[in-house]
């Protein structure tokens, strides 16, 4: 730093005039040049010559001459001396022992022999099952039981549900039922081919008129309410509604019409209780629920035997007769 001689302000060393009063600053002495370290030149010491490696003697390979075979020694026969066991020493004969029964209430006499003591019977110890294995078996058993109960509960719920497409209850009409019977009879006796289309409502009205059971009759705790049909594509569902504890239960039998040589037939293809399907193996037992309903349809079913074919579609069914004579 360069101090002003007038105001005493310290200015930078490179300034010529004071930055405060403008007075010329005294010149700074020139900085001394840095001292140089004298260069020391070390003498070069010559490297001693590397000694030559010692000369090795030449390797001379001498052939190995095998020694002559030594003569084989004669085989010596082993000396085996028979071992003769000394005769057994005669054991002194012991006097026969006298065994006398000892009564529990009498003291044992000197010289008496005690009865033989039976060896203790070892009890078979039961193998202890590890606690982890016992817990897993109990857990698996409980899970299987819960799954079975859940499946039963789900089946009961499906049985209680109303199937899809169940029609409303139809009112009985004797005139409509008589007209249907007359049409079936006249069509079967016609000499020419004829067809007749009947809708689902008319079929259910015919069933409500034809099948009338005693409402007080109870079968298996259930009361018969009505019979109905649901017409599907190519098949129909014959249904029965029963009351169990004032709750409706629906039984459905899926039937497919099939022409036979004897007339129109039907093939049972499935069944259901509510919305729970019935296994095919249980169908013969399940069809017993429909015995009374089928018995009430004996007359129209007999007239349907003369039908050549039946085209079933949702909402109606078309019956076709071939006629008794061809023109």
Which labels suit this protein?
327 residues, alpha+beta, six-stranded antiparallel β-sheet, three-stranded antiparallel β-sheet, 22% helix
Detail the poorly predicted runs: 78-83
**Beta-strand fraction estimate:** 15-25%
Shape label = elongated
CA-to-CA gap between the ends? 143 Å
The whole-angstrom Rg is 62 Å
The string of secondary-structure elements, in order, is: EEHHEHEEEEEEHHHEE
Sheet of most strands: 6 strands, antiparallel
Classify the helix fraction into a percent range: 10-25%
Number of helices: 6
Mean pLDDT: 77
- Assembly status: single chain
Describe the overall structure:
α2 (174-188) crosses α3. This protein is α+β, with helices and mostly antiparallel strands and 327 residues long. Residues 78-83 have low confidence and may be disordered. The strands form 3 sheets. A 6-stranded antiparallel sheet has the order 4-5-6-7-8-9. The chain has a 3-stranded antiparallel sheet with strand order 3-11-10. It has a domain at 174-321. It contains 6 helices and 11 strands. The chain is elongated, with a radius of gyration of 62 Å.
Could you write a compact summary of the structure shown?
It contains six helices and eleven strands. With 327 residues, the chain is an alpha+beta fold.
Topology:
Blueprint: E1 2-3, E2 10-11, H1 131-160, H2 174-188, E3 194-199, H3 200-210, E4 218-219, E5 222-231, E6 236-244, E7 247-260, E8 263-273, E9 276-277, H4 283-286, H5 291-296, H6 298-303, E10 309-313, E11 316-321
Antiparallel strand pairs: 1-2, 3-11, 4-5, 5-6, 6-7, 7-8, 8-9, 10-11
Helix pairs in contact: 2-3
